Amino acid sequence: MQKLGFVFLFVFLGSCHNKEKSPFLLYGDGYSESPKFEFQYGMAEEEGNLIENTSYTQFDSGVICLFSLPISLYLRELGAKFRICWKTDEEGANKWKQGFSLLTGDKNEYPSWNWKGKGGDAVLTEYGKWKKESDKEGYLLEWETQIWSSGLTTYQTFALPHPLFLQRTKDVCEVVFFKPSIDGTRNQLPVLSFDFPCPDLNEISDQIQTQNDKWFRECVPGEPKVSELFRHSESSFQRFLEWENPNEFVICPSSDSLDLEKEGVHKTFFSDLFSKRTKLILPHATTVFSDETGYFSIPIPKEFLADLGTETSVRWGNSEYQDSEFIFRQGNEFFSNQTNPTSCRNQYKFWNSKDLFCGNPGLPNRLEKKLKEGSPPACLANQIQITEFYPGNHYDSQLPLPAFFEFQNMGATCDGSSLQWIFENTVYPLSADEWILEKGAVFLITRKLWSGWNLLEKEKPFSIPKVVFQIPSFLWENRKEKEQVSFISNISLYHLLRFQSQNRFSIQLNALGAQFPHVRSEASLNFLPYGFQISPGSVNNTLVDNLYTDLLEYNPNQSPFLDFGFTGFEEGVVSFQRENGNTYQFWKPKGIQFQTLATLPSTCNGEDFYQLPDGFFSENFHSLRYLSKEKGESVTFSWDPLSIKEWTIGGTRSLHPEPSPILFSRSTISSNHCLSDFRSPGSSKLRSLEIRKGEGEFHYFTNGSLGNPTEVKLGNGNGTIPLLLQPTGVNTYSVNSQGPFPFSPEEQLYSYFTDPSLIQPNSFLERKGPVQIEAIFPNPKDSQNEWIYLCNRSANSEDLSFYLVEDETSTDDLVSYQSRFPNLIPSTIGGKTFVLNTTVLHPGHCAWIVDPDGKDWFFPIFQKDSDLLLTVKTTQTIGNGIASGESIQIRKKIGQSSKLISSFGHKESFSPFRISVATGEFLWLKTGSESMSTSDFEIYREEF
Which domain of life is it from (predicted)? Predict the structure, then answer.
């Protein structure tokens, strides 16, 4: 920017003056003992952001000057400013320093002060008293808030109030200096009134007009940017919206109105004063809008600022600012939202206030004050480390402990006001004023202050859910440099902190960043007697014992839970993993043998449980990995989630893990709280006898001994014969399989086990017939398009004309499709063909039994052109429809009777099942499966 010729003298004389003195003061014959008013416009003597001299007075070489702004600001002001200078002695200068000290000080009561000199006099009084006398006296000309009563407008870099200038008479002028404070009422604030000989006002007017014309010729069309905003009725700063020209040149806004939009509601503000004061905006100049009169800002109605700090759009011409959520009051401190902030300690503040306030309305955000020598440096984001997190117990009325994040300064002693903490996309500046953090200091960010605990803490109104399992993610940011250090939540690590419906534990972090529930040994003794393991303000480095355990009970039914078992004497952290990679940790106290884990409180499980995340017991839950006390190593326990309901006998029994191949036994303890339910959360277990079939014929495993009460038979629906069990090892048995058996070689046979210790009798498929059902489509979109898919798994061809298909009500003979419909060629989706004219099914080949009323069938991808297409002789079975979940048998006519060859649902065994499917779904037997369980079948869907 251009300097006037005056700058040459500044350069020439600058070396003659001490750097601490004002270099632009040209002492000499230009001043007398009579005060001289000097108006300056379009001249800035200094640049930079460091504000070193905040005095309004300067005395040197027998000349004192009073400035319209603190001297460092005065030197940087490009717009309208003035000084009043005259010759005096040191005593006179000290008198004026005292006057300004009383004006700008923090005292509420002001002693008498006045000055009288050659050609002028001054007095310190209250604004209300001065205003009353001023109104009586009147004036010829006034200059206030940039506007001259003659109609001229001056422009300023800083949106701060300059002293009021009045021409009382032709020869007498007055300047009124105001206290830079927005506390209290204006009438009670002190003012310093100074009468002196008037300058040449015509010359000042010409100077203003000339400079304004120059700027209007040079200015570039454009609007400023939002630089700072604030809104809180409990603060003296009330509400303001600050805009700044970020450019090195003068801009001329094309608009003299503000537009606000929130949730589709529009508001527009404009005024004559707005238009006059913003026709041009100087480089890096600020403009403030406020309904608070103390700012000497552009007045704006309160309702236009009522939504600051929310999702609101603000526009000035082509410049748009998208406001976001910001909390202006945090604890007992207030913060403005600045787009270009610096350390709260370092930021230069013009306004005096009783508030703990971080902000500087009317000034560029980056202006900084000179620090005291030896002041600690600003804290850096990378030297702050989290050491503990507690989600709080504030939802509990008995012990409403507040949530907190505990941090430690791992670097050198520093000032924390240089930092801001960003959590859930909300910015929380750490401190509104200097906050010294010694090396190693531990401090809290807490929802509510821990009053009386003598902790280093800052209250921040962050929100934490009632149930939390992880340390939430957050950022530390250097306010000035915008450098960030992030803590990313480990979303696969779950800490079970909630016990007996209260958050009993915090999460500790050691020096390496490892996380675990707070150990007992270093928990605060103030909270431990109440069952809380936390230690706010105290860093812990205790080594953590990872305990061995065993899963003793799993209930996947109503009010699901897990029970882990221990000896009872150990204490430490228990860790286990799910199949999805998630790890879960909880604290196991001494004296506990059974620890229950559940997702929600329920009467079925009692209160003594750790709370698991919602959805833990999902359909995908099928394995756990943990350090096994029994095995002495890490083990993985897995199961098929589709078989769980079958294992629990319709959701009535808890499951107890057993060694392979038993997998699970079932609870035999009837619940005292859940009707018709068998479970034992948090207590001793009683397990059912379980029998599993091994590989080969008549080989079995059990989880206990079989004896005289055990009875075993072989057969099917046509009759049974007894078998004799023989032990072959620890909990392993076989039977004498030497025949002859009174059954056809082709018949499907089952073993039948009964024992008082079995919850229900068991059956196992001991022998299959030559032809087996491998898929069934009971519920197609078009009801007549049902089918049964069967395959010949023997070494011999089978003529299916000797076969019957039987549902739960009727029986029908099988025939080739062509023999029943000799003139029809069936069509299928996909255009594949079938063998239509035979019932002979060769080894390894398959056939489809279809409803005789069907057409345009859907067949799965495994259908082949070599497959037979069969139907039924009448319409008694498949012709009347197969119900979803219905049992189906394939039987073979041998002599005068029929023998069971294959079964879907196995109604003739002790282990029948039903599988219901939705419309368009079909069942397909898994490869290598026995078909004795619902989990042996996959469900697929027809594409409509």
Answer: Bacteria
